[in-house]
Amino acid sequence: MDLIYDFLAQVQASSSVLARWDVVLALLVGSVGGVLIGAIPGVGPAVAIAILLPATFSMDPIVGLTVLLGIYGSSMYGGSIPAILINTPGTAVNALTTYDGYPMTTRGEARRALSLAYSSSFFGGIFSVVCLIFFAPILAKIAPMFGSREIFLAALLGIILVVTAHRKHTLIAAAMACFGIWLNTIGLHPASYSKRYTFDQSWLSGGVNLIVVVLGLFALSQAFTLLHGDDEKVRLTKLKGSFFQGFRELARHPRIAGISATFGVVMGMIPGVGEFTAQFMSYTYAQKSSKRPEDFGHGSSEGLIAAETANNAVPGAAMVPLLALGIPGEALTAMMLSVFYVHNVIPGPQLFQNDMDFVVALYLALLILNVLVVAFLLVATNQLIKVVKIPNRFLGVCILILSFVGVYSLRNSLTDCIIAAGFGIFGFIMKRMQLPVVPIVLGMVLGGIMEVKLRSAMARVKTPLDFIDRPIAAILFGMIVLVLLLHFRRVWLDYKERKTDEWQTSHASTSFPAILSRRRNYILTERGKTLRAKRKTFSRRLTGKD
Amino acid sequence: MSDEITEHPDRPQRGQVLFAALFLICATLLLAAIEDQTKWLKGKDFFAQPRFWPAIGVGGMVVFTALHFWHLPRKPRLLPRWMREADWFQWAESLSWAVLAIGLALWLGPIAAAPFVFLVAIIRVTWLYQHWTDRREAKIWASVFEWAGWFLAYVLLVPLIGYLPVTIAFSLILTWRVGYRSRLMMWSAGIFAVLVVLIFKSFLQVKIPGATIYEYLPGALRSFFILNF
User: Fold this and answer.
1) What is the pLDDT along chain B (229 residues), one digit of tens a residue?
2) Does residue A270 lie within any of the structural domains?
3) In a domain, A160, yes or no
4) Among A63, A193, A397, A453, the residue to mutate for chain B (most B Cβ within 10 A)
5) For residue B143, which residues of chain A lie inside 8 Å, CB to CB?
6) How far is B112 from chain A (nearest CA, A)?
7) Residue A110: inside a domain
8) Are residues A258 and A387 in the same domain?
9) Which keywords has UniProt assigned to this entry (chain B) (predicted)?
10) Which residue in A402, A85, A120, A355 sits closest to A253, CA to CA?
């Protein structure tokens, strides 16, 4: 009880942090801007956050983070609009929404689908923030138990999870994570002041800036992709009536909504896992426990609830490893980390101990944000859907112009712009081949954390076992081993499945060369048999008596 | 947000071999340069060595990309008929790569030559397995340099001519270039450019320097333009 009373006092103290005109404005801009950005397919929160990042450096940390958090938290609401209406997810995490949302639109239930998506997203968002507000005092007690070695192991776990989460792309994801680690090492080594991979170039001595890389990989590459692509013809469905019915329908599925939100919170808290795993698990659970599993993928309201609730429960939870340990679990929180560093606010156990008001204020901001977004969507959806019609290549021009603000305002450096353009081209190539770029960003951020923490942790370690002699370190080490074992088991099972498929389909081929090849093999085998039979007649079989 | 996890489980094959080979070549060259580009300090702990993390990064790039390259579905390149039929050509081709590798090993010594011999092997495999779709894909990659060029021209002109005029001009010209010629689109492009400048430079006071050309403006107008546009 004491914990709750303490915490309520903290909420009261934190609300004063939010009661400022600039924070209120940031909340409004973040929520409305996030919905707009989410609703435009091809932009997404990563592009918007990357562009706005340098602009937030001149703001107070709480104001800057509120804008970014607003975009992060509300873009998924907006992303469900094109996913449901035109079968194109506004943000990547809305891909699962198209499975059940679009079929509902095709049978004339677009308003129902949108309303259900809004209410589910709202429930997921509020659920995660409420959970975290009540967990915050416990987190504040656990976070100081994390020393250098625990943070190193948590960062390592994060990298391993990010890599293994890219199923079927694990090897290239690992290579990209290592690329990120290497990029972070360029420049002066902080402990010995020796140069690393600078090739005697003065512009490389300061290292490669994370924001420049992020802007190149996310914003510029997206601009190039849009400029290179074609426009899509969009036909919108007219929506009439209110969007409140979804809340009633959601209330009829409390189990699916609750469990999906829980999956979102738990998966969001684990670095490197994120929305996709949460969605996948909640969708699978909803399908397995449904009375009508055959409807999933064909316009099932339960499927829509599971997908939207899970993905909106993640942003709040994803702030936990960032704030409590200083470890970002994904690209967007990695970008937010730079805002902390610019303002000399170091996220980690000390933040929870010394500046709890700030942490709770962020959660309250997220709570208010969800309310603002739903209120905005309930009244403005009909006008908002028109943004879907903005032509792709024009969007590319807009992103290119906005990217300039992001890169150039950082240090007014032409070199930064050239590096960003280089990463933009690299990101474009990666996008064309559907290879993962997120591990690069996480490799850069987590690589830096691991380097510093391992160095300080090893100073007190004499034998390898000393590294995991504390309970949290041992648990984290156990988790790393478990994740790796599960991954290798899955690789082995996939391999076996592939081989079985190959074996089963090997005789089904009807191609002419395959027929010829089988015929040749048959003739050769038969001829071999004949020859062996002939030889047998000339040579007596050996017996034990000989 | 890991955008790519669930998207397109069957990735397009075009360009994969080429990309993996190019990435592997760069990683191998970086690995070969590790001794020159990083230091190993005497008396320092193993984990605190300046070379430790670059080695993890570059080593991981080489190992994982090589494994990825190895696992890629590859189809042998269809060589021209005369090449396929001429036994001497195939002998000469294999032999020339071997001579190159052995020559490198003799010239640099076996250990120093190892990364370069590996490079030779990568180039040979890429030559044997690249396809016409890879070459077409490479042309598409090259075409993006045009947009990067536009962006860099914009960056170069802003400090000279000014953020507002260059942004308006860039927005209009690029909109024209990508094929939107209607009055509506041109107006939209112009209004968008003005809004961007007003929001970021005038309102948020983002750090973009005043242009050289603004220096020629009279008195108060000069400082007004430098501060706001």
Assistant:
1) 334 433 444 566 788 888 998 999 899 989 988 988 898 888 888 888 889 999 999 999 999 999 998 888 777 777 777 777 777 887 888 888 888 888 888 888 878 888 888 888 888 888 778 777 888 888 999 999 999 999 999 999 999 998 999 999 999 999 999 988 899 999 999 999 999 999 888 887 788 888 888 888 887 888 888 888 8
2) yes
3) yes
4) A397
5) 228
6) 19
7) yes
8) yes
9) Membrane, Transmembrane, Transmembrane helix
10) A120
